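Design job #97: recover the sequence.
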């Protein structure tokens, strides 16, 4: 496709005829007809689909209209013809044309051609005029876009009802703004000096309308009600504002057909600068001849606006006096002596409150009345949303150096408003200006702080001003610009902990809030939105760091990353712009210290500072996890060690925390050989509240609950907890408090090892439960016996490792460790089950990882007997106090089996009470050593001790025939033993305890003496005498023992005492 920059080619009739026969002519008028057809019966409010290209075209039209706003007309009252400022506007469009077209996704090489049509759509620069030829250029521009394929037939209805309508509105503004001359006055039937196509398209809209007929254009109510729905009626409304419109055709279809023929005829005649005898003149009623044959004639707009000035003699007061609605306004003007002032103004606009507006404010000050007066004439259709008007109320120094008129803001929503008043009528004309009727007396702006407090959604910003004592400066200062941030923006940008911090003294919160708020303040001048230049600029702030201000081509203003959502909230001493994002200066930063203050953990902050631990909370590059109790839960007696126990190196998010996890704190002690003390993490299972589907996981740090969600700050994280953490206590204190470890504590004190255990550093202790000591049976009695003290020490030492090993440190499989006495200890891990391999079996950790001040304690279910410990029959019998049994074994010459025999034996050991019963109560006496030996051998079984089971038989040393048999007492759940085949009147002997030796032998303690088969009822007097002697000695020993027992119980009330 080739592109050519358009130039004027139709200079003669021959050229015109040639053009009529061209494809371009056919395409152009066919395009007009298709557009016309698309809008038949359609209202302006008809829902249209706007493609992305159409949206961009609308943006281009808005941009052109903004050029007009930025280039107001110059003072040209002495001329009735076009305002020279139009040329600046035209040049701006021409200069920006190529840039405007770049967003339309068209070939770059096409832009020079089609932009020429676009530029010519806005009028003639030289003559400052506009006509249907320029209108045709706009249609030609749209046709070019269709030829380029970026718009199509689906867009036709939107092209008319949205694009062309917006173009028409921009042109009306240009015509009014710059008093454009009509280019040849080729308007439709002379109705309109400028346009044709809105009447064509508008009549198509009205085809088939049930009620509106062509003659309805004379009905003011119809025009007022339907001008917003139909282009034709909108044009009539505009024309009626400057001249009279007439129309005599009866049907809209005929109107539309006739206009289409007329448009072709007019565009087929000589236009513009071509002057010949075939030129057709069509004029509106009452209009002078235009500049068609070299004679300058003003447009109807120019005549309307300027002619009145020259001929009318009506003043503001004349207009007001003719209308009873303004009686109270006139009274206030008289009282404030402003009538002469008004009458002598060369040009002004007055906002006139009606009588009802003065109902609650009967007397208005002169200054406030001046706030109703503008120093230029401004018509009702010249108002636009956000427009700032300068009033005659001049305030010394408040808005800048010298006297500067206070501003009045226009807002357009459901109507037109100025300040707090709604405009209810416009354009009551006087010779020196225009009056607009309003429903309220205008209120002059409050001071800047008062204005801020009146704006919804600024509560947090206002509170920061109060807290920082900046409210007085905002209230009484001069020429202030405030970029006020909404509550939503502050809540979005600052976490609740940061907002809380900025309201308090802890950590310098108020100082930081001052830095933040001063960064939103500019005191050098009042910066209205209209004063912000397009592009990016820096604005100095009270804080020192500049704000970055950007204004785009559409007038949107951004402050740093925030969009100004509410511009120009006027104040007596400045202006306020509401922003949806707060600009944060580099001087404001957050760290752990400040977050702790914001989380109301100020007391632990004071502790960190007091004990010179501030490095943990000040360094923004460091990474720590802080467990901080709230102020109401903090123990104020906490010292350095306790505070360090609340700090963990590294950042542990919730997902990093696992149940039964141990985290290393910053607390290091000599007891741990300078290793880090640990805290335990517990993750409790989810729970669901009754009648509530919300589940929650509770996190514990030691015994303190985590409150709420943690808060992250940089590389660190803070958890609020329910109490001050206490470092683990010493091992002895813990063991004494734990009742299931009473036997282990007794063993420590009995072995005189309490000091050694207490002072051991960086150790692991395996603490057997009370039931674990029960499991080793009669061995416990021996270990707690004075004769077993050394062996007991070796047992206690065998439960201590010379390093701290938590279960998480134990790898899978078998691992070797050394106890403090040098013996090896094997630990086997199978999944989560951990066993300690010991000489007497396996010990399982049943409660792991109890932290102590010197390491860790694991509770186990078995007593660990060292491999070097030899438990013999002799030791067990001594431990249980089997004095009689020991002595009769000696009599029977069996003492050698008690020490350390190569073969194991089982001793059935009746208690001394059992022997006393058989001797005294049964009057049994054994006076022969052979008979004693026979009795003893019946109580000795060769071999190892098996598991007890009902019916188990044992041969004895007495003979193979003299066997003992085990019976289970199902009723009482105990085992008993009897002589096989012997009827025993005394009953079976109950096994009351078992103690196993190192080589597999054992001592079974029983409550009765077993008698050989056919034992005579009387035993020899020799044995009786021996036994009586033994028992007497035993009773003496028992008496002493009982006394010792009560003495020791008394001593234990004070504390554990070693057994000497």
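Job complete. Output follows.
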């Amino acid at each position: 496709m080739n592109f050519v920059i358009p130039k004027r080619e139709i200079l003669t009739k021959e050229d015109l005829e040639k053009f009529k026969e061209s494809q371009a002519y056919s395409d152009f008028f066919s395009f007009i007809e298709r557009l016309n057809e698309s809008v038949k019966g359609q209202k302006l409010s008809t829902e249209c689909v706007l493609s992305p290209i159409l949206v961009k075209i609308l943006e281009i039209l808005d941009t052109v209209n903004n050029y007009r706003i930025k280039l107001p007309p110059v003072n040209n009252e002495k001329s009735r013809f076009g305002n020279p400022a139009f040329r600046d506007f035209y040049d701006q469009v021409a200069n920006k044309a190529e840039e405007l077209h770049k967003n339309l996704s068209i070939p770059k090489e096409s832009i020079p051609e089609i932009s020429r049509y676009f530029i010519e759509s806005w009028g003639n620069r030289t003559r400052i005029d506009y006509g249907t030829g320029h209108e045709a250029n706009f249609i030609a521009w749209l046709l070019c876009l269709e030829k380029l394929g970026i718009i199509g037939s689906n867009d036709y209805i939107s092209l008319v009802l949205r694009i062309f309508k917006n173009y028409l509105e921009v042109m009306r503004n240009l015509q009014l703004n710059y008093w454009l001359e009509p280019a040849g006055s080729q308007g439709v039937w002379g109705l309109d000096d400028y346009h044709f196509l809105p009447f064509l398209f508008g009549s198509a809209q009205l085809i088939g309308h049930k009620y509106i007929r062509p003659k309805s254009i004379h009905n003011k109510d119809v025009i007022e009600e339907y001008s917003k729905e139909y282009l034709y009626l909108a044009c009539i409304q505009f024309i009626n504002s400057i001249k009279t419109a007439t129309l005599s055709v009866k049907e809209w279809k005929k109107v539309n057909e006739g206009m289409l023929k007329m448009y072709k005829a007019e565009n087929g005649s000589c236009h513009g600068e071509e002057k010949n005898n075939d030129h057709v003149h069509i004029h509106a009623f009452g209009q002078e001849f235009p500049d068609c044959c070299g004679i300058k004639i003003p447009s109807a707009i120019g005549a309307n606006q300027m002619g009145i000035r020259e001929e009318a003699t009506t003043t503001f007061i004349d207009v007001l006096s003719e209308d009873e609605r303004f009686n109270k306004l006139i009274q206030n003007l008289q009282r404030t002596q402003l009538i002469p002032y008004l009458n002598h103004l060369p040009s002004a606009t007055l906002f006139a409150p009606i009588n009802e507006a003065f109902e609650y404010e009967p007397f208005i000050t002169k200054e406030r009345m001046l706030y109703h007066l503008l120093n230029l004439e401004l018509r009702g259709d010249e108002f636009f949303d956000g427009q700032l008007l300068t009033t005659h109320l001049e305030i010394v120094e408040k808005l800048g150096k010298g006297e500067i008129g206070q501003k009045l803001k226009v807002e357009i929503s459901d109507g037109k408003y100025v300040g707090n008043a709604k405009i209810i009528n416009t354009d009551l004309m006087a010779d020196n200006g225009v009056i607009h009727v309003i429903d309220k007396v205008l209120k002059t702006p409050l001071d800047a702080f008062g204005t801020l407090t009146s704006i919804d959604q600024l509560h947090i910003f206002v509170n920061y001003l109060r807290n920082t004592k900046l409210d007085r400066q905002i209230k009484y200062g001069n020429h202030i610009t405030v970029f006020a941030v909404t509550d939503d923006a502050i809540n979005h940008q600052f976490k609740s902990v940061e907002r809380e911090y900025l309201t308090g003294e802890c950590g310098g919160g108020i100082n930081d809030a001052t830095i933040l708020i001063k960064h939103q303040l500019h005191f050098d001048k009042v910066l209205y939105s209209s004063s912000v230049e397009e592009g990016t600029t820096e604005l100095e702030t009270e804080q020192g760091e500049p704000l970055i201000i950007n204004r785009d081509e559409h007038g949107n203003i951004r402050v740093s990353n925030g969009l100004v959502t509410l511009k120009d909230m006027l104040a007596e001493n400045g202006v306020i712009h509401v922003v949806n994002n707060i600009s944060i200066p580099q001087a404001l930063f957050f760290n752990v210290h400040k977050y702790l203050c914001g989380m109301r953990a100020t007391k632990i902050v004071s502790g960190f500072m007091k004990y010179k631990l501030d490095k943990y909370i000040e360094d923004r590059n460091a990474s720590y996890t802080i467990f901080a109790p709230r102020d109401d839960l903090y123990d104020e007696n906490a010292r350095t060690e306790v505070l360090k126990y609340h700090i963990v190196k590294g950042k542990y998010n919730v997902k990093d925390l696992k149940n039964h996890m141990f985290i290393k704190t910053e607390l290091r002690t000599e007891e741990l050989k300078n290793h880090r003390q640990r805290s335990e993490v517990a993750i409790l299972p989810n729970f669901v509240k009754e009648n509530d589907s919300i589940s929650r996981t509770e996190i514990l740090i030691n015994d303190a609950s985590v409150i709420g969600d943690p808060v992250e700050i940089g590389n660190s994280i803070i958890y609020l907890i329910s109490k001050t953490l206490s470092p683990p206590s010493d091992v002895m204190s813990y063991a004494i408090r734990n009742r299931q470890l009473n036997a282990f504590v007794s063993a420590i004190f009995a072995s005189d090892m309490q000091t050694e255990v207490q002072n051991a550093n960086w150790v692991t202790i395996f603490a057997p439960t009370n039931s674990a000591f029960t499991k080793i049976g009669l061995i416990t009695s021996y270990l707690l016996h004075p004769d077993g003290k050394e062996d007991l020490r070796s047992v206690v030492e065998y439960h201590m490792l010379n390093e701290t090993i938590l279960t998480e440190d134990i790898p899978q499989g078998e691992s070797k460790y050394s106890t403090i006495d040098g013996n090896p200890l094997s630990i086997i891990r199978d999944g989560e089950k951990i066993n300690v391999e010991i000489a007497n079996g396996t010990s399982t950790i049943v409660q792991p990882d109890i932290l102590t001040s010197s390491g860790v304690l694991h509770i186990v279910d078995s007593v660990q007997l060292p491999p070097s410990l030899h438990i013999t029959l002799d030791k067990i019998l001594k431990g249980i106090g089997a004095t009689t049994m020991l002595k009769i074994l000696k009599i029977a010459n069996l003492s050698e089996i008690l020490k350390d025999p190569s073969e194991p034996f089982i001793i059935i050991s009746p208690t001394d009470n059992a022997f006393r019963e058989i001797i005294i109560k049964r009057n049994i006496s054994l006076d022969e050593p052979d008979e004693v030996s026979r009795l003893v051998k019946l109580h000795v079984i060769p071999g190892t001790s098996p598991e007890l089971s009902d019916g188990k038989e044992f041969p004895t040393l007495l003979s193979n025939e003299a066997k003992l048999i085990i019976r289970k007492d199902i009723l009482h759940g105990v085992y008993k033993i009897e002589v096989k085949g012997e009827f025993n009147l005394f009953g079976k002997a109950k096994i009351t305890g078992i103690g196993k030796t190192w080589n597999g032998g054992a001592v079974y303690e029983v409550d009765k003496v077993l008698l050989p088969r056919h034992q005579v009822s009387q035993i020899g007097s020799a044995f009786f005498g021996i036994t009586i002697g033994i028992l007497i000695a035993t009773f003496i020993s028992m008496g002493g023992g009982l006394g010792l027992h009560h003495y020791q119980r008394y001593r234990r009330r004070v504390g554990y005492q070693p057994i000497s």
